[in-house]
UniProtKB/TrEMBL annotation:
Organism field: Oceanimonas doudoroffii
InterPro entries: YtoQ_family_protein (IPR019884)
UniProt cross-references to Gene3D superfamilies, sorted A to Z: 3.40.50.450
Record protein name field: YtoQ family protein
Pfam families in the record: Nuc_deoxyri_tr3
Length: 149
């Protein structure tokens, strides 16, 4: 096993425990991984701009303030990552996750996508750029274990 500590950025859907499953699976296998992610508290993420920079009556500008601050965190973590895992969940369209995938690929950081088969067609271009497409968090853990062996 390598001594390298892998930096893995977990991008995408925030409504299920897929992140926790991957982290717990890596811990159970004793893998040397440092995880980072966007802020997964939806309200905290959406309101960071107005909480720091002041209120906005127009939602467009409220969102713009938040996205500017959040993008600093996201782009920094993606550039520092050895690998980005991008989860597309079934309930909401994760436009930000698609952007993260493209940003990672453009930055030379490999991606793994994680989504159900029902999204194969709409995500075909994103999956084409991915080094692997997983259906379950356990598969991501197994890939990480293989990479670190």
């Amino acid at each position: 096993m390598s001594d390298k500590i892998w930096n893995v950025y977990l991008s995408g859907e925030i409504h299920t425990d897929w992140r926790e499953q991957i982290i717990a699976g890596c811990e159970a296998k004793g893998l040397k991984v440092r995880f980072s992610s966007a802020v997964t508290d939806h309200d905290a993420s959406d309101m960071v701009g107005v909480n720091i920079l002041g209120s906005e009556e127009d939602n467009f500008w409220r969102d713009r303030k938040a996205s500017g601050i959040n993008s600093i965190r996201t782009s920094t973590h993606i550039r520092e990552a050895d690998l980005v895992v991008v989860r597309f969940g079934p309930k909401y369209k994760q436009w930000n996750a698609a952007f993260d995938a493209g940003f990672a690929v453009a930055s030379g950081v490999p991606i793994i996508t994680l989504h159900d088969a029902e999204h194969d067609h709409p995500l075909k271009e994103v999956d084409e750029a991915a080094k692997a497409t997983c259906r379950h968090p356990e598969q991501v853990v197994e890939i990480l274990a293989y990479l670190m062996s």
